[in-house]
Amino acid sequence: MNRTKQQVKTHRTTTTRIMSSPAFELGFSDVRRGIPFDWRISVDAWGYERGRLFGHLAPLNMSLRIGGKLNPKAIALCDAAFSRRYIV
Predict the structure, then answer these.
(1) Which residues contact residue 27 at a Cβ distance below 8 angstroms, ignoring those fewer than 6 apart?
(2) Least buried of 9, 47, 63, 80, by fewest C-beta within 10 Å?
């Protein structure tokens, strides 16, 4: 009997769209505040985990937003992290 699970459907997106998601920002914020992984996150768990990973990679003095807009340096760093497969 084959018990393999189906993979989730994927779609193309942008780094900016990923970083703009509330789940990404929550994951980033949780890491910065020293809050352990919240396993109860079920909506956009990918975004939450990506935000946590980015929170570990980004310098502590790098803010995610400047004046309410995404920090261009944070976007560039996140792009580099995706390119190097530090974050998937």
Answers:
(1) 47, 48, 49, 50, 51, 52, 53, 54, 55
(2) 9
